[in-house]
Design brief:
binds (2~{S})-4-acetamido-2-azanyl-butanoic acid, mainly beta, about 5% helix, Jelly Rolls
Length: about 130
């Protein structure tokens, strides 16, 4: 069994910061679960274009307020606590935070913890210490 506390994880290298977001990776590839699990904060005012070409991602909004735009259709969906979205088609999207949003995120395949977004808004298919 794996038990981890967010408060402890956020003071470790499980906490990753980038432009517009901070993420604490509670489960990573080396935990062997087949998915990774992150608690991500999208900072107030952030507008993030992303395209996870190599991963499926599901996101549940715990707190905050914003929207997600599906760049294939132009559809915009409100994001608020209780709303989940799943990028089941590797959907290219823009996430906007009106108020800072706390999101619980699952990635399949799991991230290793070393990925950074490429210029295409994606994480690489597989990252390791040598390439990330
Ligand atoms: C909500 C969202 O897009 N989360 C992405 C996860 C975060 N960028 C991470 O942990 O890598």
């Amino acid at each position: 069994m794996i038990v981890r506390d967010l408060k402890t994880a956020e003071t470790s290298d499980r906490r990753v910061e980038s432009d517009g977001w901070t993420s604490v990776r509670l489960l990573l590839k080396d935990d062997g679960m087949g998915f990774s699990f992150h608690i991500t904060t999208i900072h107030e005012g952030a507008e993030l274009e992303m395209h996870y070409k190599n991963h499926l991602e599901s996101v549940y909004c715990v707190a905050g307020e914003g929207s997600i735009e599906d760049l294939a259709t132009g559809e915009i969906h409100a994001i608020r606590p209780g709303v989940m979205y799943a990028l089941d088609r590797h959907d290219k999207h823009v996430l906007r935070a009106v108020k800072a949003m706390t999101m619980a995120c699952v990635f399949n395949p799991p991230v290793t913890g070393r990925e950074v977004h490429g210029p295409d808004g994606a994480y690489p298919a597989e990252a390791d210490a040598a390439s990330a």
